[in-house]
Amino acid sequence: MKEKIIEKILTLLAFSAIGVLLLITVFIFKEGLPIILKAGIKDFLFSAKWAPTKGHFGILSMIISSLAVTFGSIIMGVPLALACAITLAEFCPPRLLVFLKPTIELLAGIPSVVFGFLGVILLVPIIREYLGGPGLSLLAASIILAIMILPTITSISIDAIQAVPLLYKEGALAMGATHWQAIHLVILPAARSGVVTAIILGMARAIGETMAVIMVAGNALKIPSSLLDPVRTLTSTIALEMGYSAGDHRTALFAAGIILFIFIMVLNILANLLMRKK
Amino acid sequence: MGFKQAFIGFSLVVFLFAPGCSSKSSPRSHSLTIAGSTSVQPFAEKLAEIYMAINPKLIINVQGGGSTAGIKACRERAAQIGTSSRELHPDEGDLTKIIIAKDGIAVIVHPQNPISDISIEQLRGIFSGKIRSWARLGWVDKPIFFVNREEGSGTRDAFEGLVMQKEEISDEALVQDSNGSVREIIANNPQAIGYISFGIVNHQVKALAVNSISPNLKTIKSNQYTLTRPFIFVFPSQPTDLAQRFIDFVLSKEGQIILEKEGLVGIH
Questions:
Q1: CB-defined contacts A:B, below 8 A
Q2: Least confident range of A164-173, B85-94, B235-244
Q3: Which residues of A touch B185 (CB under 8 A)?
Q4: Is the pLDDT of residue A90 over 50?
Q5: In chain B, which residues have their Cβ closer than 8 Å to the Cβ of A220?
Q6: pLDDT higher than threshold 80 for residue B21
Q7: Is A9 on the interface with B (CB under 8 A)?
Q8: Where are the alpha helices (DSSP H) in A40-111?
Q9: How many CB atoms lie within 10 A of CB B82?
Q10: CB neighbourhood size of A200 (10 A)
Q11: Phi, psi (deg, nearest 5) at residue B35
Q12: Which of A7, A136, A147, B96 would you call most buried, defined as having the most Cβ atoms within 10 angstroms of its Cβ?
């Protein structure tokens, strides 16, 4: 009796969490779809003219910026995170690992606004002085995001590497491979799906990040033509403009949310599929 | 036996779902709705907050939506007071208007920038992306970084009306979503230029003279400084009792001091 009731209550609570997700999905689509239909999907996705108070709802530049920032952070973050993961999983003495792994995971707990603030104070002036441009740029946003996704990718990759059966490594070493050869020829390929999942989850984190990006990206609407150009991502637009938005403008922000939602859904589904394959 | 747990579980569920249905009880008899300009909104909210503290029974709703929407809401009696940060159009003359304060839009640059005066035409050139180098304004040949406000901002709306007129602000502009963060960017970048409310200007930045008139309390009050806009309350010729009392409060010495503390220029 007692068991059953507790079971029911827990199930109810679990379903309410899914219910919330469902409600959010329905709400975003209900609020955002009308403007996509009104502006036309083509004009919405493939026009770069965004002036919602004057009737222009093109989000192309934001889509490009979001992808560029994410891509940039992956290029910079993945080698770093993989190096971290390999070192920690393979070369690190266990006693040091106990100390290093939580430290890297602590990086994930730092609020994004702190990363943004550091970016504005330290990174942006350096970029402006040594590389040119306004400093607030695609490059600055990518670097900050690379640091932010580091712990996600590192810790999932460590798990993937450690999940490779010891037998593989022993076999490779027995065949005369050096430790490094065993890592890059045997262990990494065996851990591939886990590592790719880690990268995809890192991408999802990067594309959804808002606060730090607003602070360092400069938020210009123009499609960026160089790394030093300022960019405006989908998330920044929503956060920047929601305060005073009304009517069609507000709907258009929800529509931008739909696109973001689809991006993140696709990334998550990919990550899930890859994990199952493993 | 299981009763206790069942009860706890039940009350948990009730607790989770209850807040949605409790808000409609005990309607307050006195309420006032103010709607309109998003520039006036923060100031109206501040005034309302203090006025409600003095009159605890009164509820004042302050809404945004823009000057035009505010005037419309007032005309349709959806709001007792409409707010506007632009002068009324001739066809809006059926409503009574009162200027409650004035706001100057200061054009700011880094203190190291030697330029101290700018014309409206130069300003328009910079923000439309036609003037790209500080050399055109008599300084070094370095790119100009101009900082804009986000779409929907009242200050941006006023800047577009007063400076840009028919021209569009270039999409190369950096965008920040508050007076404070625009100021922060300018304070850290010697080549940047932007615009903020006069009340927010501090020692970190330098406010330029526009068409040779520098912004200060006097030039803004007298409209000599070009980038000045009025903050207006509009209401039907016979406002409700509550509305009238709130307007009296805003125009009183106390109300004006509140507005000046928030960075506006009072009318007295």
A1: 86
A2: B85-94
A3: 136
A4: yes
A5: 171-175
A6: no
A7: yes
A8: 41-46, 60-86, 94-107
A9: 32
A10: 23
A11: -135, 150
A12: A136
The structure tokens listed for A261 are: 């939602």
DSSP codes of every residue in A173-202:
HHTT--HHHIIIIIIHHHTHHHHHHHHHHH
Residue A79's alpha-carbon distances to A74, A86, A102, A117, A227, in angstroms, are 8, 10, 20, 25, 19
The average pLDDT across A195-206 equals 94
Distance of CA B30 to the CA centre of its chain: 27
- Interface contact A244-B69, CB threshold 8 A: no
| Interface test with chain A among B174, B182, B191, B193, by most A beta carbons within 10 Å | B174
pLDDT at B160 over 50: yes
Cβ count near B190 (within 10 Å): 17
Residue B121 has pLDDT above 90, yes or no: yes
C-alpha distance from B268 to closest chain A C-alpha (Å): 30
Residue B157: closest CA among B69, B233, B77: B69
Tell me the C-alpha distance between B152 and B65, whole Å: 9
Nearest residue, CB atoms, A220 vs list B9, B172, B191? B172
Amino acid at A200: I
**Closest Cα partner for B116 from B25, B56, B193?**
B193
Interface of B with A (CB under 8 A): 1-2, 5-6, 9, 12-13, 16, 38, 64-66, 69, 145, 150-154, 168, 170-177, 184-185, 188-189, 191-192
By Cβ distance, the residue of A124, A222, A240 closest to B150 is A240
Instruction: Nearest by CB to A218, from B64, B153, B174: name it.
Output: B174
Any chain B CB within 8 A of the CB of A225?
no
Q: Is the CB of residue A187 less than 8 Å from the CB of residue A161?
A: yes
Residues 6+ apart with CB under 8 A from B63: B33, B34, B35, B36, B41, B73, B79
Q: Are B72 and B233 in contact (CB under 8 A)?
A: no
Spell out the SS3 assignment of B9-47: HHHHHHHHHHHHHCCCCCCCCEEEEEEECCCCHHHHHHH
Partners of A225 on chain B (C-beta within 8 Å) are: none
C-alpha of B109 from chain center? 21
ipTM score of complex: 0.84
Count CB-CB contacts under 10 A for residue A262: 10
Band (pLDDT 50/70/90 cuts) for residue B29 is: low
Give the Cα separation of A235 and A247 in Å (integer).
19
Nearest to A53 among B151, B171, B184 (CB): B151
Tens of pLDDT, residue by residue over A99-138, are 888 888 898 899 999 999 999 999 999 999 999 889 999 9
pLDDT score for A4:
93
